Amino acid sequence: MSWQGKAEDTGHIEELGAVQGPSFSAKLKAHFRRFWWLHLIIFIACTLIIVLCLIYVAFPHISQHDIDKSTLTVQSLILSNPTPDSFHLVQTSVIGNDSPYHPDLDAFNASLSLDGRVPYAYIEIPAVHATAQATTVVDQDVTITDLDAFIEYNINVLQNEEVNLDVKGRTALHEMSFPTTNVDYNKTATMKGLNNLTGFSITDFTIQLIPEADGTNMLGTVNIPNPSVMTLSMGNVTFNNYIGNTTDPALYVGTTTLTNLTLVPGNNTIPMRSTVNQSLVLTQIVESYQNGMLPISIVGNSSVFDGQHLVYFEKALSSVTQHVTLDVGKALMEIGVNTSALGGGGALPPPPLLL
Ligand SMILES: *[C@@H]1O[C@H](CO)[C@@H](O)[C@H](O)[C@H]1NC(C)=O
Ligand SMILES: *[C@@H]1O[C@H](CO)[C@@H](O)[C@H](O)[C@H]1NC(C)=O
Ligand SMILES: *[C@@H]1O[C@H](CO)[C@@H](O)[C@H](O)[C@H]1NC(C)=O
Ligand SMILES: *[C@@H]1O[C@H](CO)[C@@H](O)[C@H](O)[C@H]1NC(C)=O
Ligand SMILES: *[C@@H]1O[C@H](CO)[C@@H](O)[C@H](O)[C@H]1NC(C)=O
Ligand SMILES: *[C@@H]1O[C@H](CO)[C@@H](O)[C@H](O)[C@H]1NC(C)=O
Ligand SMILES: *[C@@H]1O[C@H](CO)[C@@H](O)[C@H](O)[C@H]1NC(C)=O
Ligand SMILES: *[C@@H]1O[C@H](CO)[C@@H](O)[C@H](O)[C@H]1NC(C)=O
Ligand SMILES: *[C@@H]1O[C@H](CO)[C@@H](O)[C@H](O)[C@H]1NC(C)=O
Ligand SMILES: *[C@@H]1O[C@H](CO)[C@@H](O)[C@H](O)[C@H]1NC(C)=O
Q: Ligand nearest 235 Cα, by number?
């Protein structure tokens, strides 16, 4: 049984093997002849799926990737007409785009914030053709939507060498005949800050024994370096002055006012008007600073524009202290007061003007 069966099987296999080759290809041809339409449909469907994936999945993905890779550089930022809850902004930025694609972005509403914090305002970024270096100019009145966030932003701008400005929004991107795709525009522009106004100095001053009508009895010039690209209108700014490295009320010696202060990038040379307690100055010179060199601590106090206090500048200005040393002995000598003769005894050092 089994032996017979085996012989039968072998024969059967040989028979099959003999016909398989030609008949398979023939069958295949026949199959294609019969079902060509099915294969065409499958081919078209596959092509469609690939093309649609490219257009609707890969293209938005590539677009988002290119947006994420693009850079944002703030070239200039001019803040003017400040009110307690708004300001006018003219901001010129450059969008850098390495990609071979130069898409068009629609205008969009973007939030401004500091280093990933809560936004302090929203601006309208104009439409842009994203070439390798595309310049955009925002020129609009901006409402401060979160005062605490804006205070924080100003404190950071004042105190730091660099700050990160986040610009976030969502916009439509158009590239050739691809369908419009929406992209997240999340960019961080690193900008130079005011670095604690390092280099702040009083370059000259004169003391007046008879005060002006508003009490001003010291006039001078301050130099404020602004290493940033920002122009800031801060209105009438006042500082509280103290004798020594202190903010002890007992050593409060008066206020300094910078009228219509607008800090521009670079060196700012600004006239200052001060009201000082001259009797305190004389007492301190006689008691503690016989050489006439008076160390002064200067702390921001108020920023008033058109009669309104700008809390966001006040909080920032009052967060840093400037230290200067004034040659008060020499200034007094110029108006005929010899502080050495007042009883100090210490000889007046000759030239070094001031710091
Ligand atoms: C911008 O977006 C913010 C938050 O979504 C919204 O409050 C504000 O009204 C928008 N501004 C404009 C001009 O659409
Ligand atoms: C600026 O001054 C603040 C407060 O005095 C200080 O914390 C900060 O480190 C200073 N910033 C720089 C860049 O020196
Ligand atoms: C952009 O920021 C928004 C809001 O913070 C966030 O929802 C979105 O996921 C971010 N998109 C990208 C691509 O980082
Ligand atoms: C002022 O005093 C503080 C500490 O009390 C010190 O760290 C700082 O260096 C002093 N500044 C000057 C200019 O003397
Ligand atoms: C300050 O600015 C106001 C208007 O912003 C102007 O009327 C005024 O004359 C200016 N004062 C000085 C001293 O420049
Ligand atoms: C700014 O002024 C200071 C002092 O007058 C000077 O040493 C410095 O070189 C000036 N800087 C610029 C950029 O003009
Ligand atoms: C000036 O300082 C003296 C202390 O030396 C003080 O008694 C006097 O009240 C101060 N004057 C003013 C106007 O603050
Ligand atoms: C300004 O100075 C006054 C006292 O001279 C003080 O009461 C006030 O708190 C100061 N404001 C700021 C923002 O430092
Ligand atoms: C600054 O004060 C002066 C004199 O009080 C005033 O004429 C001017 O309008 C003030 N400036 C601003 C910007 O408010
Ligand atoms: C100032 O007074 C001292 C001590 O009385 C005296 O030695 C010095 O010559 C005086 N200087 C001037 C310029 O009068």
A: 9
Q: Is 289 in a helix, a strand, or coil?
A: coil
Single residue among 161, 192, 223 that ends a domain in this structure: 192
Domain housing 79: 68-192
Question: Which residue bears the tokens 């039968």?
Answer: 8
**Strand 230-243, strand 71-83: pairing:** parallel
Is the pLDDT confidence value at 7 over 70? Answer: no
pTM, two decimal places: 0.85
Query: Would you give the DSSP letter of residue 84?
Result: T
Q: Which of 301, 311, 313, 314 to mutate to test the pocket of ligand 8 (most atoms within 8 A of CB)?
A: 301
Instruction: List pLDDT tens digits, range 35-63.
Output: 889 989 999 999 998 888 888 888 888 88
Which of the listed residues 130, 164, 192 is the one where a domain comes to its end? Answer: 192
What's the CATH number where 87 sits? 2.60.40
The finding on whether 122 has its CB within 6 A of some atom of ligand 1 is: yes
111 lines ligand 3 (CB under 6 A): no
Q: Is the pLDDT at 10 greater than 70, yes or no?
A: no
